[in-house]
């Protein structure tokens, strides 16, 4: 895929790859670090909670951004759709009374 048309896509996928690599590295470090089992489990639990919180935050940010884009598109198309809808409504009303 050519990133010329999607300049934001490359930076987003690079950042996602970085986060995934950091997560895998953190889990590997916890599993191979010399620590007691209970301590390692506590660290894993904290890491999981933090990662879940971050994922939810990013999901909400994405949902909000998507909502704003949808609203922008609706606003941009409203004059076109509104005039088409009123024309279609008018035509269907005329068809009712032509018979």
Description:
There is one protein chain. The protein is mostly helical. Helices cover 89% and strands 0% of the residues. The chain has two helices and no strands. The radius of gyration is 26 Å and the shape is elongated.
Write the layout of secondary structure elements.
Layout: H1 7-32, H2 37-98
Helix pairs in contact: 1-2
Number of strands: 0
Largest sheet: none
- One letter per element, helices H and strands E, the order comes to HH
Determine the number of helices (DSSP H or I, runs of at least 4 residues). 2
**Structural class of the secondary elements?**
mainly alpha
Between the first and last Cα atoms, what is the distance in angstroms?
A: 55 Å
Q: Taking Cα atoms only, what radius of gyration do you get, to the nearest Å? A: 26 Å
Overall outline: elongated
Mean pLDDT reading: 76
Strand portion = under 5%
Describe, in short, the structure shown.
This protein is mainly alpha-helical. The protein is built from two helices and no strands. The chain has helices spanning 7-32, 37-98.
Entry keywords:
99 residues, mainly alpha, elongated
């Amino acid at each position: 895929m050519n990133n010329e048309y999607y300049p934001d896509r490359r930076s987003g996928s690079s950042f996602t790859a970085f986060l995934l690599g950091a997560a895998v590295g953190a889990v590997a470090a916890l599993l191979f670090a010399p620590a007691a089992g209970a301590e390692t489990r506590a660290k894993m639990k904290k890491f999981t909670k933090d990662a879940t919180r971050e994922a939810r935050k990013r999901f909400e940010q994405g949902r909000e951004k998507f909502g704003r884009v949808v609203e922008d598109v609706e606003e941009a198309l409203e004059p076109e759709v509104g005039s088409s809808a009123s024309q279609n409504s008018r035509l269907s009303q005329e068809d009712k009374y032509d018979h």
